[in-house]
């Protein structure tokens, strides 16, 4: 796909993130798995690593739903209302993401008050 065909936007911060203190965009993670499935890796994650993940990310609420389902799933909810369903191995990646779609950035800078004289550079 060409650059003109791919979506692009200007650089922006999520909910003014980075202005002041950092605010983690991931708020809730729901783990839905089967307690009785023989090969449930989600159940193994809950037994072994869920507490460690919760301790490393205190701002993220981790819900565990043991239900009768054949396919375990993860539902992540972000501050901006986006919902992402991913596999358990991507939990740490989701905790570090902002919740925005990955998209080409047109310019590597953004300001709410643009300069009339242009961007400063030493040469």
From TrEMBL:
It comes from the Eukaryota. Residues 34-98 form the Ribosomal protein/NADH dehydrogenase domain. SUPFAM superfamilies: Thioredoxin-like. One of its GO terms (biological process) is mitochondrial translation. InterPro entries: Ribosomal_mL43 (IPR039927), Ribosomal_mL43/mS25/NADH_DH (IPR007741), Thioredoxin-like_sf (IPR036249). GO terms for cellular component: mitochondrial large ribosomal subunit. One of its GO terms (molecular function) is structural constituent of ribosome. Keywords: Mitochondrion, Ribonucleoprotein, Ribosomal protein. SMART domains: L51_S25_CI-B8. It is found in: Mitochondrion. Belongs to the mitochondrion-specific ribosomal protein mL43 family. This is Large ribosomal subunit protein mL43. It comes from Pipa carvalhoi.
């Amino acid at each position: 796909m060409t650059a003109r065909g791919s979506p692009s936007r200007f650089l922006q911060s999520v909910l003014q993130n980075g202005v002041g203190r950092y605010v983690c965009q991931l708020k809730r993670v729901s783990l839905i798995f089967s307690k009785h499935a023989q090969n449930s890796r989600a159940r193994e994650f809950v037994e072994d690593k869920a507490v460690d993940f919760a301790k490393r990310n205190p701002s993220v609420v981790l819900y565990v739903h043991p239900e009768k389902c054949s396919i375990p799933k993860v539902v992540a909810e972000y501050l901006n209302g986006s919902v992402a369903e991913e596999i358990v191995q991507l939990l740490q990646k989701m905790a570090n993401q902002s919740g925005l779609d990955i998209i080409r950035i047109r310019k590597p800078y953004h300001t709410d008050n643009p300069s009339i004289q242009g961007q400063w550079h030493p040469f």
